[in-house]
Amino acid sequence: MPLRAIRLLRLALHVIWGISLVWALYPFIHDRRRLWLKQRWSRQLLDILAVRLDAHLSSAAPGSLIVANHISWLDIFALNAARPVAFISKAEVRQWPLIGWLSAHTDTVFLERGSRAHAKVVNERIDALLSAEKDVAVFPEGTTTDGTHLLAFHAALLQPAIAAGRPLQPVAVSYHELDGSRSLAPAYIGETTLLECVLAIISRRGIIVRVQPTPALPTSERHRRELAHAARAAIAFRLALPLELPEVTASAEVAAGVEPQPNTAHASGAATDRGEPRSAPGDSNGDQPVAQP
Fold it and tell me: I need a labelling partner for 292 at 20 to 30 A (CA). Which of 85, 97, 125, 271 fits?
């Protein structure tokens, strides 16, 4: 309990420090300095939570569209600690107290669900970021899992990478206990609240988050659905997870009119389907993945 209390206090102070940095410095410093501060703050956050980062993203080409599986709100800070990026978020997050303000000031691109006109504007914004060799990250599952399986990858937000001729960089995210076994503590799923998830993380003596890139996918002359299938297969293989969709997910997608992923291949290894997916703070649904808290 004393250790958890100390970590919670340090976490609260760190969040206040981050707000102060964004308010006082961000309007007056260059983009490169902003990215450095974002990366440093995210690494300090992981340290406070006793989460050790094992990441190898330095070889990714600048201006990549990073496509990752989604387990926790912590994914965002793990990615930023490894390589600071802009995220795609549903527009509702912009109206959230404090979080919305922070998101708007830390390179978040907001997307209005169901608006084709706004989707075009967002795609142009992502295109501009990629063309300027700034990385953009999406979680194409559109919600979180417990990390033991993958949901379908929705392809809508992969189009800007194709339009800009920028590479698609699949990234596999996983959490592990100190003994190397898979950790479910960071999973933000089902009825778990954000506070419960934070407490589960800080209750561990330590956790390892692995951020592993797979070979980048060229986007020239390729359809976004083909790229979505290829990115999902690459991440499944890297995480040793089954490529087949969980049966309940496939049925739900058919009912919703979403084309499910093909079940013609299987990645090495297997996993038990545990836990129901949920939307982490800022997650969007359907073809509109991700969020920046």
Answer: 271
